[in-house]
Amino acid sequence: MSVFTDETRERAREIIARYPADRSRSALLPLLHLVQAEEGYVSPAGVTFCAEVLGLNKAQVGAVATFYTMYKRKPTGDFLVSVCTNTMCNVLGGQEVYDTLVEHLGVGHDETTADGTITLEHAECLAACDYGPVMTVNYDFFDRVDPSTAVGVVDELRGGGRPMPTRGARLCTLKEMAVQLAGFADERDGAVADGGPGEPTLRGLRLAQEHGVSVPGFDPNTPIRSKAEADKAAAEAKAKAEAAKPAPVEASAAPVKGGDGASAPTPGNAGAGEPAPAAAASGSTAPDVKAPDDKSPQVRTAETRQPDAGTAVPDAPGTKVPTDSTAPEPGDARSAEAAGVAANEPAGDGKPAGDEAGAQERNLTEAKAGTDADGAGPADASETGAQK
User: Fold this and answer.
1) Which end of the chain has fewer CB atoms at under 10 Å, N or C?
2) The sheet that has 79-84: what strands, in order across it?
3) Which residues pair with 136 in a beta bridge?
């Protein structure tokens, strides 16, 4: 007979309904929190329950439950006390805090006190280095703790009290926390009315306000659009951008008027007594580009350092643009790369790169004959072959 109540089964159906019908296995993580909320840990019965409601096998569920440390595999106390002993908190005294609690509670890592109130663990990192050393009670933070304050917190918990975390809402039991992690609101009266952020967390906001830094046009009350609305807005923006593009200029036989109203000569119609433009006289095919002042400093620097680059322009200092249709010669780096590729043919399928089949056959023949070309004995032949 199942140990899970009808309420848990109803909540399980609600969790599964959050996901598309063909993606129901995505509900596994919140379902594991749900069964932990009833039993205090993910038991074999909990694994079986999740497998049954999702149509998975127990091995698939167990693989997930054993991967994440927030899923407990044995009964856990009402309050999970985690002490950070990683580098930053350790330097600031985290290990001393943990060792003091071990001695005071009489339990070690991942062990529970005899009264079932507290389970102690050391954590690799609690992601609060600016508040170190830190410890959490059911994942709520107690910042800048020392051995005496840590002992005071656990003694208050064992006495039935609920000490207020440094940041966040008021404490709840591990089972109550698991219900929230499964995606259900905390139903306690005023449960989220307390707490607040710490000063180090607000430091970035303070600096932004002090220096007038803000996101342009940011409205914190902007509603999150649905996918259909977002797709429609993107399509409208794309259509608007396409409409704003200038129409392509079509070639025309009409002469181009000069500054004085006269027809400006072109490479093909320059009169006998009129000088042809420089591009026409030289036969250059270089594209018409903007002056270097309109370019970014990075582009101008690159063109200066590599004067024979194919993207060089006449106005860039130190560049040389070909005056005919011949492509620019490759630079030194490209020449070296081409020479290296030509000198290193890819290996075939028959042997590793660098091996010479002729030398191998010669060595084998000499070793089999018992002598090499100089008349050496078998031992000498072997040595000579190795040298070759």
Assistant:
1) N
2) 111-112, 118-123, 79-84, 135-137, 140-142
3) 82, 141
Is pLDDT above 90 for 368? no
Task: Fill in the DSSP letter of residue 296.
Answer: -
pLDDT number for residue 16: 92
- Which residue, 110, 198, 125, is CA-closest to 136? 125
Q: How much is the pTM?
A: 0.54
Q: Per residue in 83-99, pLDDT tens?
A: 999 999 999 999 999 99
C-alpha dihedral (102, 114, 187, 47), degrees to nearest 10: 100
pLDDT score, position 370: 64
Under 8 Å between Cβ of 222 and 196: no
Please state the separation of Cα 349 from the chain's center in Å: 38
Tokens at 5, concatenated: 């109540």
pLDDT surpassing 60 at residue 356: no
Average pLDDT, the chain: 77
Closest of 124, 143, 123 to residue 133, by C-alpha: 143
Kindly tell me the burial class for residue 209, based on how many C-beta atoms sit within 10 Å of its own C-beta (0-12, 13-18, 19 or more): exposed
Collapsed DSSP state (helix, strand, coil) of residue 261 = coil
What are the DSSP calls for 308-351, one per residue? T-TT--TTSTT----SSSPPPPP-HHHHHHHHHHHHSPPP-SSS
8-state DSSP, 159: T
Band the pLDDT of 317: cuts 50, 70, 90: very low
